[in-house]
Amino acid sequence: MAEDSKGVSNLLHENRTFPPPEDFAREAVAGADLYERAQQDRLAFWAEQARELISWERDFEQTLDWSEAPFAKWFVGGTLNVAYNCVDRHVEAGNGERVAIHFEGEPGDTRTLTYAQLKDEVSKAANALASLGVAAGDRVAIYLPMIPEAVISMLACARLGATHSVVFGGFSADALHSRIVDAEAKVVITADGGYRRGKPSALKPAVDAALAKSETTVEKVLVVQRTGQDTEFDESRDLWWHEVVDPASPEHTPQGFDSEHPLFILYTSGTTGKPKGILHTTGGYLTQAAFTHKNVFDLKPEKDVYWCTADIGWITGHSYLTYAPLANGATQVVYEGTPDTPHRGRWWEIVEKYKVTILYTAPTAIRAAMKWGDDIPEKYDLSSLRVLGSVGEPINPEAWMWYRRVIGGDKAPIVDTWWQTETGALMISPLPGVTATKPGSAQRALPGIVVDVVDDAGQPLENNVGGFLVVKEPWPSMLRGIWGDPQRFKDTYWSTFEGMYFAGDGARRDDDGDIWFLGRVDDVMNVSGHRLSTTEIESALVSHPAVAEAAVVGAADETTGQAVVAFVILRSSHAEDEGITEALRQHVGQEIGPIAKPKRVLVVSELPKTRSGKIMRRLLRDVAENREVGDATTLADSSVMDLIQENLKKGS
Ligand code: WT7
To answer: Does residue 419 line the site of ligand 1, with CB under 6 A?
Structure first.
């Protein structure tokens, strides 16, 4: 294990298991036979799923072409239109009146969109984008709050074969700029603002600032009016959504695109400063997203009300808010705001109001709700809930048990789903009618997915020995590369272990063969289920004139999983600057976005380095987590840690 890795610590050994309730198992969508069928003939299994769950314009000829590994082609020769699969075909099947989206705005405004209405809105948006010159292969940046137009925009791009790049609304102008530049976007879709914690929060100024930073490829900016706040408008470039999309024709004939046509790029943090543009394509992505959504959440589209609390700015919002639920014809809730606005019972109020049956959220939100107290959810009728999902980071057994007891009424199965931006769709998870679940473990690979836990040499590990999680066979929704950087794709994921995909996560298998995740083994942090790169935040810090050097670590945090803690060495000319730590926090917020703001900034005079000059973050993590500092013998100067601790004592 790398010297600088997080230290693969074992979670508590957990022996409790919860078999699926009998009535649940009897009615379940997925049975144990799925594993057997996938085992017998993996490719035939996926081909069958692709044909059953997706409507192809032209059927595919070959299930997998792996001849140019690690660049995969799935469902070769097939053509399809993703938007047709997500809306039109449900209307054609007579389900046009089914609700696709129950939208709940943070201020309490609501909007209901049936599949028939969604089809019209997506068609209008597609016609409008086409009138702005957007065609198949063009890139469109989407920078929107959680409003129906976010989903509509994504589907409108998919309908035209334009590749979208959604940028999280919480990211700064700088982050938006670098993403627009990297993807060479032609159009940006944004809003005047969205509602956040009871107030309108502007978005459009960040787009203006991003586009002012350099000459870009952006020709038009389409602006949704959400809050009605004063918004600067560049008449030659900006257009209001309601003036362009609303009057557009609701007739649009979807064209089929190749199964490997690029559907979207989504940027995610890696171990270097520059975010990676993860590329996903069409047929394989939609197949695995739809398959996992149906089977892991036990989806019965005629009855269920599904709610995924993720933002469309993350992969969960792409796969399990936009594409899979709509491809499966589900009815879902889309909520704009935060869980505690205007009060801490807001989520549970929404569950009660819409009789949500399937809830998909993150451990950080569960832990926050747990901290706020049982009496809050207990005020609401949550009896409609029958499946609970978790994603984003390992869920600790305590939070798992609370989720089950207080939210799930001690009976709803919990599915702890492991996957990544890169994997596109779920990879490891229980099946709710089949698996006896275990608090804290994501358990086993889904049917058709082959994973393992291996040691440094790529040899399989068992019996609770910590190692690395790898994927051993290509899977339909796998990333097809990093936008514009094929070499980085190979280096990052395929060079650590011969012929295997290296996920960057530590894991162990218990005596039953169930997988337990142990956190990242690289310099990637996980804050509230969001991936942040230590290097990216360090670069932001050293770009401030007061900072000479910086080291960032993710320290364990009760609510957010990890919290960003920064150690900085100030330039002597700034050593006495008043309020410098707060200024540095704000600076990071501006450079990357508020989620990246360090929780603590600690000023030190030295940083612990190895003889080769590599910062030993492990030791800094010990300090940040108030632990005794571990083995420091490989430091170039072993007195540094004493010095740092002395510094901090003086400072506090
Ligand atoms: C990383 C991927 C997948 C959508 C959300 C995050 C961690 C994710 C789990 C889980 C343990 C998990 C891993 C992974 N992770 N889900 N159920 N148990 N760890 O997507 O930003 O691409 O981050 O999140 O470390 O590598 P992402």
So the answer is: yes
pLDDT score recorded for residue 4:
35
Helix axes 115-131, 148-160, angle to 10 degrees: 60
Q: Identify the residue with better confidence: 288 or 650.
A: 288
pLDDT at 107 over 60: yes
Domain region containing 530: 524-651
pLDDT value of position 7:
33
Determine the Cα–Cα distance for residues 512 and 14; give it in Å rounded to an integer. Answer: 12
Q: How many domains does the chain have?
A: 1
Contacts of residues 231-235 at CB distance under 8 Å and 24 or more positions apart, as own/partner, are: 231/192, 231/193, 231/202, 231/204, 232/204, 232/205, 232/208, 234/208
Average model confidence (pLDDT) across the chain: 94
List of residues 6+ apart from 343 with CB closer than 8 A: none
3 state SS for 250-303: CCCCCCCEECCCEEEEEEECCCCCCCEEEEEECHHHHHHHHHHHHHHCCCCCCC
Task: Assess whether the C-beta atom of 315 lies below 6 angstroms from ligand 1.
Answer: yes
Report yes or no on 123 lying in a domain. no
DSSP state of 529: T
Burial class (CB in 10 A: 0-12, 13-18, 19+), 560: buried
Query: How many Å lie between the centroid of ligand 1 and the Cα of residue 559?
Result: 16
Over residues 10-56, the pLDDT tens digits come to 444 567 999 999 999 999 999 999 999 999 999 999 999 999 999 99
Does residue 439 have its Cβ closer than 6 Å to ligand 1?
no
Q: From CA 10, how far away is CA 518, in angstroms rounded?
A: 7
CATH number of the domain where residue 594 is located: 3.30.300.30
Distances (CA, A) of 246 to 53, 102, 332: 32, 20, 23
Specify if 67 maps to a domain. Answer: no
The residue type at 513: G
User: Is the alpha carbon torsion for 350, 351, 353, 358 positive or negative?
Assistant: positive
Residues placed in the known binding site for Mg(2+):
542, 544, 547
Alpha carbon 250 to chain centroid distance?
A: 31
Confidence of residue 241 (pLDDT cuts 50, 70, 90): very high
The binding site for ATP comprises 392-394, 416-421, 505, 520, 531
What does the DSSP 8-state code read for residue 549?
A: E
Tell me, yes or no, whether 449 lies in a domain: no
Burial (CB count within 10 angstroms: exposed 0-12, middle 13-18, buried 19+), residue 629 = middle
Which residue puts its alpha carbon closest to atom 2 of ligand 1?
Answer: 420
DSSP assignments along 170-208, one per residue: TS-HHHHHHHHHHHT-SEEEEESEEEETTEEEE-HHHHH
Q: What is the per-residue pLDDT for 652?
A: 52
The Cα 477–Cα 46 span in angstroms is 11
Instruction: Please return the burial class of 332, using the count of CB atoms within 10 Å of its CB with bins 0-12, 13-18 and 19+.
Output: buried
What residue's CA is closest to ligand 1, atom 19? 393
Q: pLDDT value at position 14? A: 67
Q: Is the Cβ atom of 268 under 6 angstroms away from ligand 1?
A: yes
626 domain-assigned: yes
Average pLDDT over residues 428-434: 98
pLDDT in tens, 194-237: 999 999 999 999 999 999 999 999 999 999 999 999 999 999 99
- CB 361 near ligand 1, within 6 Å: no
Residue 450 pLDDT level (bands cut at 50, 70, 90)? very high
Single pTM value for the model: 0.92
Question: Is residue 186 lining ligand 1, measured as CB closer than 6 Å?
Answer: no
